[in-house]
Specification:
Helix content is 36%, strand content 22%. The chain has 16 helices and 21 strands.
Length: 450
């Protein structure tokens, strides 16, 4: 890594650009009334994705950046799922006709914390209120430490065909420092059980930049992981924002690696995965060559949403559950984050929208530019601008950071085509941020660029 580039850009606090504009721009100017109107105006031939948030875990991982609640009792989960089912009904009632659905994602928290019968009931309700395509991707996030045999069977019975397993690190020193003790054997059992239930799309989540983590421990985690041959890996840099996530204060900041060490860990993981036959996808994903994500990247049709890189091309994402974010053609809508407020709104027969954002024409243009940069490390600014009926000069001349990035050898500009140089791809978020018209005071809620 060029040390001058790390010094200049590596400490920037930047979004992961799973949306644009990003969540700090959301406000109560968009509420339940606007969201209801957006739902009602969806065209009959629209296709959608569904996201269901289950914000409960049995224990807190100190690195976690998700909205979740710790409970040892099942009653709060059962009560929450009853509210979630009611929200599905309320949203479906506002549609002119059942939407066609090609992607469903259960996130958390730990979605598999619910009883198997509850999961089967939720999937049955979604199939009743939406038209879920027979080839739809139905994905779920899993904590291998708490996955049971009965839930594994229920996942197969429900039609789940992709599972994302939290691994993070197999280093016992790192595991103790982040309050997540998980053995290779637990992970192997979960992986084997899922495959026996017919779930062929397995994803492992890894994290670098954790306390006491080293290049050697990262490589060892990859070595142990690839022996189980998951179809995909997601590799994220730990975002330490203790002012935003108070449980992160339990992490010893002195044990966190610096920017150069983080970069070395990320590149060591990348080299090990590529050496094992995985293709590098965008900033932080890896997939086997015959996986649909690798194929989408090769065809230039990779996309990005709140789950990261995706093959899902839909413009409509409906979010269910506390804190869930939806994206419609008109803009974004986020539900109440606090569980009690979310439940109260739904029980009153209201949509739970607390805030959102109505997209402008300029937002749509910048969102497309950012997505292509993040997915392809390249964007034909002229082509994107033509799609939005805008002159490319208007956007290129209005982005002064591009000139600095070009002068520093981070990007090339050949006419209207912008490319990130191969040796600077680790700064792709910095390049994407050049098109971000809102980045500023909210930066402390984001992670470091390196």
């Amino acid at each position: 890594m060029r040390h001058d580039l790390r010094a200049r850009y590596g400490e920037e606090r930047l979004p992961r650009y799973t949306s644009y504009p990003t969540a700090p721009q959301f406000s109560d100017a968009v509420g339940c009334e606007a969201y209801g109107q957006w739902l009602a105006s969806l065209p009959a031939d629209a296709t959608a994705s569904l996201y269901l948030h289950v914000p409960f875990c049995r224990s807190m991982c100190w690195y976690c950046g998700c909205h979740t609640t710790i409970t040892q009792r099942d009653a709060p989960i059962v009560d929450y799922l009853a509210v979630l089912r009611r929200e599905i009904e309320l949203v479906a009632d506002r549609l002119t006709r059942p939407l066609a659905v090609r992607h469903v994602h259960f996130g958390g928290g730990t979605p598999t914390i619910m009883e198997p019968s509850e999961l089967l009931g939720l999937v049955a309700l979604m199939r009743q209120r939406f038209v879920i395509d027979g080839s739809a991707e139905i994905a779920i996030e899993i904590d291998p430490r708490t996955l049971t045999k009965t839930m594994t069977k229920a996942l197969g019975d429900a039609g789940v065909n992709r599972a994302s397993l939290g691994v993070q690190s197999f280093d016992p020193v790192v595991q103790r420092a982040i309050n997540r003790i998980q053995s290779l054997e637990q992970t192997a059992r979960a992986t084997e059980g899922l495959r026996e239930s017919g779930i062929r799309g397995i994803n492992f989540d890894l994290i670098y930049g954790l306390p006491h983590q080293t290049v050697e421990s990262c490589i060892e985690t990859v070595r142990q992981s690839i022996a189980l041959r998951p179809e995909r890996f997601s590799v994220f840099g730990y975002a330490h924002v203790p002012s935003f996530k108070k449980h992160q204060r339990k992490i010893d900041e002195a044990a966190l690696p610096d920017g150069e060490a983080r970069y070395a860990q990320a590149e060591a993981i990348a080299e090990a995965l590529v050496g094992a036959g995985y293709r590098r996808i965008g900033l932080d994903h890896y997939a086997l060559p015959d996986d649909s994500m690798a194929q989408a990247q090769g065809e230039g049709v990779l996309h990005r949403n709140f789950q990261g890189y995706t093959t899902d091309p839909s413009d409509v994402l409906i979010g269910f559950g506390a804190s869930a974010i939806g994206r419609l053609t008109q803009g974004y809508a986020q539900n109440e984050v606090v569980l009690g407020r979310y439940a109260e709104r739904i029980q009153r027969g209201e949509l739970a929208t607390a805030k959102g954002y109505a997209l402008t024409a300029d937002d749509r243009l910048r969102a497309d530019l950012i997505e292509r940069v993040m997915c392809d490390f390249r964007v034909d600014v002229g082509q994107v601008c033509r799609q939005h009926e805008t002159a490319p000069e208007a956007i290129l001349q209005a982005v002064p950071k591009l000139r600095a990035l070009q002068a520093d050898g981070v990007i090339r500009l050949e006419g209207n085509i912008l490319s990130v140089n191969d040796n600077a791809r680790f700064l792709v978020r910095s390049v994407a941020s050049a098109f971000d018209a809102y980045l500023g005071a909210s930066g402390r809620t984001h992670s470091r660029a390196v």
